Amino acid sequence: MFQLTRVGRLLQLVLKYSREMPMNDTLWYPGCPMIANKYIFNVLSVIPYVLPAFLIDTFLRLRGSKPTMMKLLKNGNKLLTSVSYFLTNEWTFQRDNCSDLARKVKMLHDGDMVKLDLEDMDWEKYVAIYLMGIRKFILKQEFQSTARERLSRLYWIHQITKMSGIMTFLLIIYCIVY
CB–CB of 67/60 below 8 Å? Predict the structure, then answer.
């Protein structure tokens, strides 16, 4: 069975709580496929991300509004590119001071008061509180019940977009073959 890396588990928790406690102005249904090959990732991201952004920008241009979705997508890709090096490589840190401190805490029997081992940390609780803190203190948003309704609509739009993309892809292959 496929075993997730620590980053993969953390990403799953972020997605879980992003769906349970959605932001008020979410633009798309939260998701982030873990694909190792960047070329395959780029091809697979055309249908659910690039195509809808292009269509929305085209609609906005026709209405006389300023297109913004492709710019948002480009900024998101810049962010993904900038952190991908750190997410796709394995890192080993020397932490002699931390290990020494943990040993001393255990000797003093204060291990229940001071938690130094990240393996013992409740990551689910941490991510939930972290995302609530981002919403409240950085984005200055209070939870609105309409956010969950909006996310539900975005889920169905996401599913319809995926199915339409797959059908279009199959139609293109059919036209090429026959």
Answer: yes
pLDDT tens for 16-62 read 998 998 888 887 888 877 777 878 877 777 777 788 888 889 999 99
Closest C-alpha among 55, 37, 28, 26 to residue 168: 55
Phi first, then psi: give them for residue 93, nearest 5 degrees: -115, 140
Give the gyration radius of the chain's Cα atoms: 22
| Dist CA 125 CA 16 (whole Å) | 12
**What's the CA angle centered on 24, arms 19 and 28, to 5 degrees?**
55
What one-character DSSP code corresponds to residue 118?
Answer: G
Q: Which two tokens stand for residue 55?
A: 């269509």
* Residue stretches of the chain with pLDDT short of 50: 1-3
Q: pTM of the prediction?
A: 0.67
Structure tokens at 177: 């073959």
Half-sphere exposure of 31 (CA within 13 A, CB side): 14
In whole angstroms, what is the distance from residue 54 CA to residue 67 CA?
9
* Contacts (Cβ under 8 Å, ≥6 apart) of 41: 33, 35
